């Protein structure tokens, strides 16, 4: 991914994880959510998910919630910064789609 | 019912394939100690097995956090051996791949290369040293033992180099793909 702060494209995995975490969720929940919302197209491997979560934690896009004592499962939630990253990505994607449709006429022909 | 199989692998991908092949036949892998695999009779095709090289030893906090996370996602830890860990997941829960994008897969193959690198150096050193010793002692005393040992080291070195090259080829291929696709 791009090192600069000017926003690069998010990976599909990161984009969907950020969407998932608009509601607090643990790892397995994220995997299920992403699978469902993409109609089974995106299957997140747990290794990939773990790496993405740690990177996003260190970037401050998501945060780990305080654990309840009876549960060892860690829950995560998106931060304000994470939300603005998603919105920025949506703007970028809309531009891509708009321009794509303008030139090719879109997929519905 | 328990079945013990003695077998050695240098290439983890072949080992993983074999474990899955055994699981297809209803032999579920349970335990590994040096060259010794323990299987348990079960339902054919019940599990998918995946192997991974951890960044640190399994007792390390970093590894433990990762393994706990894996468990939360419904993955079972079957056994660990040095830095290697054997996972399995019920096939009924769908596909099971640890890494599903180029970035994380490239990272994993790079870790494998840093694992093999030192092994290549050690074996190469042993190969050259024993060859030198073997020829020297052989010439002086007619004993070529070290020279024979050296043959083994050469063979191991060559196999390891081949593996490292195959991982590098994979990385290069994925890096190329990544310029076009995610």
Give structural attributes.
heterodimer, A: 109 residues, Arc Repressor Mutant, subunit A, three-stranded antiparallel sheet, disordered N terminus, B: 182 residues, alpha+beta, 2 domains, 4 helices, 21% strand, globular
Please describe what this structure looks like:
By secondary structure, chain A is mainly alpha-helical. Chain A has a single domain (12-104), classed as Orthogonal Bundle (Arc Repressor Mutant, subunit A). Chain A has helices at 12-20, 27-37, 46-59, 80-104; strands at residues 25-26, 62-64, 75-78. In chain A, strands 1-3-2 form a three-stranded antiparallel sheet. In chain A, helix 1 crosses helix 2. Chain B has two domains: 2-93, no CATH class; 102-180. Chain B contains four helices and six strands. In chain B, helix 3 (102-141) packs antiparallel against helix 4 (145-180). The mean pLDDT of chain B is 94. Chain A binds chain B through residues 1, 11-13, 26-28, 31, 35, 43-52, 72-74, and chain B through 52, 66, 68-70, 72-75, 94-95, 97-101, 103-104, 107-108, 182.
Calculate Rg of chain B over CA atoms. Answer: 20 Å
General form of chain B: globular
Average pLDDT confidence of chain B is: 94
Could you give the distance between the termini of chain A? 34 Å
- Which percent range describes the beta-strand content of chain A? 5-15%
Major beta sheet of chain B, specifics?
Answer: 3 strands, antiparallel
Oligomer: heterodimer
Q: Strand order, biggest sheet of chain A?
A: 1-3-2
> How many structural units, i.e. domains of chain A?
1
Q: What portion of residues of chain B is helical?
A: 55-70%
Order of helices and strands of chain A: HEHHEEH
Provide the number of structural domains of chain B. 2
Question: Which runs of chain B of at least 5 residues are low in confidence (pLDDT < 50)?
Answer: none
Q: Kindly identify the CATH topology of chain A.
A: Arc Repressor Mutant, subunit A
For the record, what CATH class of chain A applies? Mainly Alpha
Spatial sequence of strands, sheet with the most strands of chain B: 1-3-2
